[in-house]
Specification:
By secondary structure, the protein is mainly α. Helix content is 59%, strand content 5%. The protein has a two-stranded antiparallel ribbon with strand order 1-2. The longest helix is centred in the middle third of the chain and has 45 residues. The chain is rod-shaped and about 90 Å long. The model has no long low-confidence stretch (mean pLDDT 86).
């Protein structure tokens, strides 16, 4: 019979964290139950303290199981793992999607800024204007309408970049109000 070796608090916490702080047998979690770490292969049968042999259990389930070996990992733990993996996969895909949205938005801002810079070769739109106003217009209007507004503004005010920007904003807001996007 093997002698039981104590588990550190860190190892216990890692097991609990891996198992989402739920008993692998009954699914209960604190504060309804007190969690313990159980050995899948009991210490009495040579089970070790490595993570692959440890599982989260509530006190009642662990006491009820005793030194009875598990022939396999409980289905609930497998389901929990699958659910956690799906959650992680969704987060990863969501982040990729957001990166793509941000990349497209940055390209759209750059395209509109280029129209302004074609007329005013020595000027550029301020970073604040690009990040706030231009981004908002692109959220509320189709890109081609924002491009049209910049082309109109730079053609109506070709010698005055400051007033061209104001005119551009006026054209965009007029389109937004006409589309019923802003109240």
């Amino acid at each position: 019979m093997s002698k039981r070796k104590g588990l550190s608090k860190k190892v216990r916490f890692e097991v609990f964290k891996r198992d989402s702080f739920k008993c692998a047998y009954c699914g209960k979690s604190p504060p309804a139950v007190t969690l313990e770490v159980d050995h899948i292969v009991p210490v009495a049968d040579g089970g070790e303290n490595d993570m692959s042999n440890l599982i989260t259990s509530c006190h009642d389930c662990n006491s009820g199981k005793g030194a009875v070996p598990l022939s396999r990992v409980p289905q609930q733990l497998s389901d929990n793992f699958a659910e956690l993996k799906e959650h992680e996969d969704q987060i990863r895909e969501y982040r990729k999607f957001i990166k793509g949205v941000n990349r497209r938005a940055a390209k759209d801002v750059a395209d509109i800024s280029a129209i302004f810079s074609e007329t005013f070769t020595d000027k550029d739109l301020s970073q604040k204007f690009k990040k706030v106003s231009l981004k908002k217009f692109l959220e509320l209007l189709p890109k081609h309408e924002v491009e049209d507004a910049m082309e109109i503004a730079t053609s109506v005010r070709p010698d005055d970049p400051e007033n061209a920007v104001k005119y551009f904003c006026g054209v965009c807001w007029k389109k937004i109000k006409a589309n019923g996007e802003w109240k």
